[in-house]
């Protein structure tokens, strides 16, 4: 917050520093709102979806419980350093982001120059909105696309075991792709630990099942 307020008065940013106090406040509030949506909302929404899917799919919940009980035991919480040895938990995270990408339409982009994509002429200045939600459910890429099936991502077993979420496989782009993809350095450091470690304890929950849809 201090940095943003300082920037608003910095002469290097003339369009902002020369504006009225009201406009500065609006810009500062917009930046803070973007940070909240981009970091906390995306993460918390996907944790909620993961928990909902686990409750709806007791067999997946059972396998996750078994993995944690076998690899970690029942005496302590899952730590960030444990994540490497929890491939099923990682697959649950991926499958949640596939079916319920927190940014279903990613973020709008605009082409800076004329180009041709798959035979379509795209003039400069065209606004591009990518429907990741639809792509993530496309049967041309996904076997039984509407099913919550983390096994598809298990290395050496699943039909999508080689599909990664860093924007290199265009059928799975919850973080976007290309130059605007969520920085993997940032995401690796900030996103997986709270995500995995905060929902992992709930994996041991027991109770009635219910179904979810989006
Ligand atoms: C489940 C978690 C998250 C999801 C699904 C997600 C998704 C996205 C998506 C779809 C974009 C737009 C990419 C594009 O323009 O094509 C984006 C941008 C961005 N995200 Fe995330 N994000 C998540 C968490 C985070 C976190 C935790 C941080 C930082 C701590 C972060 C930082 C950013 C930044 C800085 C950008 C803008 C990148 C740029 O425009 O160069 N994201 N995110």
TrEMBL record:
Q: Which GO terms describe its cellular component?
A: membrane
- Which UniProt keywords are present, listed alphabetically? Heme, Iron, Membrane, Metal-binding, Oxidoreductase, Transmembrane, Transmembrane helix
At the top level, the lineage of the source is Eukaryota
Q: Which PANTHER family match?
A: CYTOCHROME P450, CYTOCHROME P450 82C3-RELATED
Q: What organism is this sequence from?
A: Tetracentron sinense
- UniProt cross-references to Pfam families, sorted A to Z: p450
Report if keyword Heme is assigned.
yes
Localization annotation: Membrane
Q: Name one GO molecular function term.
A: heme binding
> Which InterPro entries does its entry note?
Cyt_P450, Cyt_P450_E_grp-I, Cyt_P450_sf, Plant_Cytochrome_P450_Monoox
Its protein name is: Cytochrome P450
The cofactors named for this UniProt entry are: heme
């Amino acid at each position: 917050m201090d940095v943003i307020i300082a920037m608003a008065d910095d002469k290097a940013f003339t369009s902002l520093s020369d504006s009225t106090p009201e406009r500065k406040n609006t810009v500062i509030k917009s930046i803070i709102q973007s940070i909240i949506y981009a970091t906390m909302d995306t993460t918390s929404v996907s944790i909620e979806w993961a928990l909902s899917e686990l409750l709806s799919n007791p067999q997946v919940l059972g396998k996750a419980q078994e993995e944690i009980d076998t690899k970690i035991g029942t005496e302590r919480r899952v730590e960030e350093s444990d994540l490497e040895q929890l491939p099923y938990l990682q697959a649950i995270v991926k499958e949640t982001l596939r079916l319920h990408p927190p940014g279903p339409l990613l973020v709008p982009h605009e082409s800076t120059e004329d180009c041709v994509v798959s035979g379509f002429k795209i003039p400069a200045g065209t606004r591009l909105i990518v429907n990741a939600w639809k792509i993530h459910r496309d049967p041309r890429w996904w076997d039984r696309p509407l099913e919550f099936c983390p096994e598809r991502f298990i290395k050496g077993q699943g039909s999508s075991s080689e599909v990664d979420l860093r924007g290199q496989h265009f059928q799975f782009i919850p973080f976007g792709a290309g130059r605007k993809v969520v920085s993997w350095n940032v995401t690796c450091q900030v996103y997986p630990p709270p995500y995995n470690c905060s929902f992992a304890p709930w994996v041991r929950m027991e109770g009635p099942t219910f179904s979810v849809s989006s």
